[in-house]
């Protein structure tokens, strides 16, 4: 492994999205992530299809590359003992069980810390202070995201609260690893979906606090920046994002309406917010005179941010270097979306480990933990572990 986390082992008991997204980021940074899964069904997202590639659900494939999978029944006494051995050997342990479950399984924070005082232990939960389950749709409802999205309450089209929680978990774990490296101390990290969602509301939340008024839904517009929304062109819709007064004047010049840039009502952003309806009506009369691509080119030349509304596949294909390719054991060549960052120390063309099959590395990992071949065979006969058996596709 290469990268700043090379040599760091992560025992990953998480599943679905927030935890696996966090550990995929750690794997991208060079960590050895050991994904612990139930030997029969594995991570829930393995069944979240179609679509599938090589028998694996696209959802699962999205957030599990760079990891090794050990299929282990942690409820079985022998499985529990192996899980505890893995935690004792790990630098980071991450879980998103319901509150109390990790403790019952023998991999809770206190028991892990006793065996491994320097461990960074991360728990991802839905809501603090209770055992209420958290799923993205309910968190989006409870956090205000649905209230401000769309023109009637709508959820964001991706599980955004899980993604935010995964990013928060990765950042907190990195901070804790730095503390461990510099002070020799472990750390307890707790990340909640509701807390991640609320902190992700940023300016919308702060505006509500400052004004004392409930936030409103602005659809494809912006509550405090105008014009910053979609417009109808001759052949479709596109977005204009004018973030300051200079850009507004550049927009007016580009569309041949310099008069709007000098109009006292619209000179400042505050004035444009107050006179939103009047200004948008003027702009909406101009944009249908040209097709989207012409407007994008014209506004781009003027330095005005504008964007074509694309489908997901179109967006991926249009962006430069948005994907990477791995060789999957059953799917063959598999295209995956890159993370949103690069590091100089991590070569972009390095070999990426494909998302593992269920239990693909069970025997390998158990051998590393000192489990003998005879015991591995016994555990497999008893159903405590599972080792993936597959026929690799030819190159």
UniProtKB/TrEMBL annotation:
Record keywords, A-Z: Transferase
InterPro entries per the UniProt record, alphabetical: CoA-transferase_III_domain (IPR050483), CoA-Trfase_fam_III (IPR003673), CoA-Trfase_III_dom3_sf (IPR044855), CoA-Trfase_III_dom_1_sf (IPR023606)
Gene3D superfamilies attached to this UniProt entry: Crotonobetainyl-coa:carnitine coa-transferase, domain 1, formyl-coa transferase, domain 3
GO molecular function per UniProt: CoA-transferase activity
Native source organism of the sequence: Streptosporangium roseum (strain ATCC 12428 / DSM 43021 / JCM 3005 / KCTC 9067 / NCIMB 10171 / NRRL 2505 / NI 9100)
TM region positions: none
Name by which UniProt lists this protein: Acyl-CoA transferase/carnitine dehydratase
């Amino acid at each position: 492994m290469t990268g700043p986390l090379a040599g760091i082992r992560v025992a990953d008991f998480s599943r679905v999205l927030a935890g696996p997204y966090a550990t995929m980021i750690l794997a991208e940074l060079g960590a050895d992530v050991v994904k612990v899964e139930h030997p029969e069904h594995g991570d829930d997202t393995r069944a979240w299809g179609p679509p599938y590639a090589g028998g694996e659900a696209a959802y699962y494939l999205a957030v599990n590359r760079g990891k090794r999978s050990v299929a282990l029944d942690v409820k079985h006494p022998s499985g529990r003992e192996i899980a505890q051995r893995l935690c004792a050997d790990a630098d980071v342990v991450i879980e998103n069980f319901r509150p109390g479950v990790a403790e019952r399984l023998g991999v809770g924070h206190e028991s892990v810390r006793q065996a491994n005082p320097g461990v960074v232990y991360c728990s991802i939960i839905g809501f603090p202070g209770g055992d209420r389950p958290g799923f993205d749709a309910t968190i989006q409802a409870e956090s205000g995201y649905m209230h401000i999205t769309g023109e009637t309450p709508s959820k964001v089209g991706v599980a955004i609260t899980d993604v935010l929680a995964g990013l928060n978990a990765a950042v907190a774990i990195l901070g804790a690893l730095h503390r461990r490296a510099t002070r020799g101390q472990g750390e307890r990290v707790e990340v909640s979906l509701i807390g991640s969602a609320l902190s992700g509301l940023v300016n919308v939340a702060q505006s509500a606090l400052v004004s004392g008024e409930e936030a409103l839904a602005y659809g494809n517009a912006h509550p405090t920046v105008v014009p910053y929304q979609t417009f109808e062109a001759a052949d479709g819709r596109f977005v204009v994002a004018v973030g300051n007064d200079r850009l507004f004047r550049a927009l007016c010049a580009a569309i041949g309406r310099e008069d709007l840039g000098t109009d006292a009502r619209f000179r400042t952003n505050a004035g444009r917010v107050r006179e939103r309806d009047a200004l948008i009506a003027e702009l909406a009369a101009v944009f249908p005179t040209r097709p989207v691509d012409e407007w994008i080119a014209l506004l781009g030349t003027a330095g005005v941010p504008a964007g074509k509304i694309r489908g997901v596949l179109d967006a991926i294909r249009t962006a430069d270097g948005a994907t990477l390719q791995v060789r999957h054991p059953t799917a063959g060549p598999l295209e995956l979306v890159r993370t949103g960052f690069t590091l100089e120390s991590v070569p972009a063309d390095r070999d990426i480990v494909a998302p593992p099959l269920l239990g693909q590395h069970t025997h390998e990992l158990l051998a590393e933990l000192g489990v003998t071949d005879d015991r591995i065979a016994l555990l497999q006969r008893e159903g405590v572990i599972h080792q993936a058996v597959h026929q690799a596709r030819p190159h």
